Fold Maltose alpha-D-glucosyltransferase/alpha-amylase.
Amino acid sequence: MRLTNTSDLWWKNAVVYCLDVETYADGNGDGIGDFRGLTEHVDHLDRLGVTCLWLMPFFPTPDRDDGYDITDFYSVDPKLGTLGEFVEFMRVARDRGIRVIADLVVNHTSDEHPWFKEARSSRDSRYRDWYIWSDTPEPDDPEGVVFPDKEDSLWEFDEGSGQYYYHRFYRFQPDLNVANPEVRDEIARILGFWMELGLSGFRVDAVPFLVEDVGMKEESAKEAKDAKAADEGSRDGKRQEPPHAAGEWQGGQGAGERRGRSDDDGGLPDVHRFLRDMRAFMNRRNGSAMLLGEVNLPYPDLLKFFGNDLGDEVTMCFDFIGMQRMYLALARGEATPLAEALRERPYPPSDCHWATFVRNHDELTLDKLTGAERQEVFDAFGPDKDMQIFGRGLRRRLPPMLDGDPRKIRMVYSLLFSLPGTPVLFYGEEIGMGENLKAEGRQAVRTPMQWTPHKNGGFSTAEPSEFRNPMTEGEYGPEKVNVSAQRRDPDSLLMWMTKLVEQYRECPELAWGRYEILDTGEPSVLAHRADIDGATVLALHNFSDEEVSFSLRLDGLDDGQVLTDLLVDGTTKISADGDADIELGPYGCRWLRASEPELAPADAADVADSEARQVQDA
């Protein structure tokens, strides 16, 4: 395939790395990570092969939700630095060829944001309609409460104005009324501001909640009630007055106009029109900008957020279902759950893509598994209640879940980089960091980055009591797990990850090609191939602790090609009928490129032959 395509649509084979500035590196010794510290460690990301850095929220915040409760969308939290230091960081990242995206959190603000303070000051405030108000809250749907350990309702009473405001997340995070044109205009200004400072896109937080159908549900319920009253009135021979158009909502527009009314071109909810508008705005400012969407929905529902066949909404969506099925496969020692998910997963529009991941910064959610399947994963990787969260997920990192077994850990990350999609790493995964279960909730996996085996893991010179989150201790503490030591060890996880990144970038077939799940006859083995423009790469992964051997039928290939190992030395022959005999060790993984013998990548045997010829010629 033409490599020029990989730069035009750079996100399709990018290597994305997510970090929290606050926990990555402290540059001024106050115990809090900052842009000065991050800038000094950009070369670590460059050596690893990262091409896109995703920054968690770095805006001013009271920090009651790890920065997702924002009080100013146009600045940097003073604890993390200044706008000037942000610009310096962006310049260094650009010099190393690393693009930067940031969290776009526009579902809600902090209740300390000036907009909300003004909105709650009076029902006549110009910002009143920037939020969602009601005289009487709707009945709560327990499944709709995102944080059931902290909240039991989606509505909070505001004593000052005598109304309830809506909050999908915490009560101190009132939802913005994104159906209000003024709010949408302000969001466009926020996008434009940060793009002018160099951002290449945004990770959109909780996409399905951007424009919810709160108003539509309330309006529907009111209409049903009014219709029933009118029907009863007509039977009584009494004339009924029509209901007030705005119902109990405040502002100049009716609830149906403000929240969730269908679009004119296909009946999609307003969230899709909003996403199309946002994507169009970004394309006008920077045609290569992208949106990475957090859309945890079943595949048929999720596909709509790409914009269906048009692909004019979210550029990439996380594959939550594939991730969860991967953990079920690991728990069972069988590849079948993941293979089924990949067969079910639809192809996104041509310029869009899936984002694959092992875990992210939130809980490791298992919400798309059945109750029995979720329990299997809990039993295997988080049997203690303290390891679980919200009844639906785990607050653990991968290495401790796999008992530190390097074979399993390396196999999982080989899988990540070979699966069809763009791999997304969470900081510290490259060295095998563990969690600290002493930290509250999801903070267990948001511990400080571990750079050296010395004081505070090289994260900060301050006293640990000054840290936002405590360091990880014990087997996964910085004394045993750190960047410095692994950089010097050719057999370390860091070096393995670096090799995976390098080979992934050299195999655009994995990201761009049409993939096919192959039948191996071995339940423990996931085999898939990626083909594009006559080029083929195979990926093979053994989920069991037993060695396996099998014959693989490769349609379209024959003895005119060979399979060359890309992760280790070795070459496998293909028969005239297109069969290849494959061996995989316990938790083994292999990437194989099909090519003509004269064009195949070199392996150790080729080097030995070359050296022998040189000796003969001498």
Q: What stands out?
A: Residues 558 and 578 are 4 Å apart (CA to CA). Residues 109-177 form a domain with the Oligo-1,6-glucosidase; domain 2 fold (CATH 3.90.400.10). Confidence is low (pLDDT under 50) at residues 215-269. The chain has 20 helices and 22 strands.
